[in-house]
Amino acid sequence: MSKMIIIVKLFFIHRDYVEYYGNHNYKG
Question: What secondary structure, in 3-state letters, does the chain show?
Fold first, then answer.
């Protein structure tokens, strides 16, 4: 169960990271 929680945390961290840098790159 704890393993699934870690996977979910990593997923959300990765998603936020991609959105943050994706927006910065898109806006220049």
Answer: CHHHHHHHHHHHHHHHHHHHHHHHHHHC
C-alpha span between 2 and 18 (Å, rounded): 24
From CA 22, how far away is CA 15, in angstroms rounded?
A: 10
pLDDT per residue as tens digits for the range 10-23:
999 988 888 877 77
Closest CA to 21 of 13, 6, 7, 11: 13
- Give the pair of three-digit tokens for residue 16: 């936020």
